[in-house]
Design a protein that fits this description.
This protein is mainly alpha-helical. It has a domain of 98 residues. Helix content is 78%, strand content 0%. It is built from 7 helices and no strands. α1 packs antiparallel against α2. The longest helix is centred in the first third of the chain and has 30 residues.
Length: 168
C-alpha cells in the first residue's frame, strides 16, 4: 500500500472509532445506572462527539442547557395544560423566544425543542416530571461519556486551511 492510502485510512478511521467508543460508553453507563430508556444516552453522546474537538465543551453546555429548558417547559405544560396541537405549536415558538432571551443559540433551541417533544407528547401527563427527569439524566450520561472520551482522546481539529491544503 502506498503511504497516502495508509494516511487516508488512519485519518478516516479516527472519527468513526471515537463515535463507536462514545456511544458504547454511554450505553454501558446508562444501562449500569438502570435507566429505563437508556438509548437516549448514546444519542446524546453521538451528538456531542460529532462536534469539532475544540467545540466539544460548548456543544455539551448547549445540549445540557437546551435539554434542561425543554424538559422543564414540557413537564410544566403537560402537567398544567396538557398536550395538544395548539399548545405544542405555541410552546415551540415560546421556546425559541425564550432561548433567544437567554442568549442561547439555535443548537440549544433545537435540543430544547426535542426534549419538549419527548416530555410533552410521549406519554401520560401525570408522568411528565418523571419523563423530564429521566430524559435529562439519560442525556447527561451521554454528554459526560462524550466529554470523558474527548478529554482522553481528542480528535485533531480540521480547519479550513487544512482542508484546502488537503485538496492541493
Amino acid at each position: 500500500m502506498n503511504i497516502q492510502l495508509l494516511a487516508w485510512l488512519k485519518k478516516s478511521i479516527v472519527h468513526p472509532a471515537r463515535m463507536m467508543i462514545a456511544a458504547a460508553l454511554a450505553l454501558l453507563a446508562a444501562r449500569g445506572l438502570g435507566l429505563s430508556e437508556f438509548y437516549w444516552a448514546p444519542i446524546a453522546a453521538l451528538i456531542v462527539v460529532q462536534s469539532d474537538s475544540s467545540a466539544l465543551l460548548a456543544t455539551s453546555w448547549l445540549l445540557l442547557a437546551g435539554t434542561a429548558l425543554g424538559v422543564s417547559v414540557g413537564a410544566l405544560l403537560a402537567t398544567y395544560i396538557g398536550p395538544g396541537v395548539t399548545v405544542f405549536a405555541l410552546s415551540v415558538l415560546g421556546l425559541g423566544l425564550l432561548s433567544a432571551t437567554l442568549r442561547l443559540d439555535r443548537r440549544a433551541n433545537h435540543f430544547a425543542t426535542i426534549a419538549l417533544v419527548i416530555v410533552l407528547l410521549a406519554g401520560p401527563a401525570n408522568q411528565a416530571w418523571h419523563r423530564a427527569l429521566y430524559r435529562f439524566i439519560e442525556f447527561s450520561v451521554g454528554i459526560v461519556m462524550a466529554l470523558l472520551l474527548g478529554a482522553l482522546w481528542s480528535e485533531p481539529s480540521t480547519s479550513r486551511v487544512n482542508i484546502q491544503n488537503q485538496k492541493h
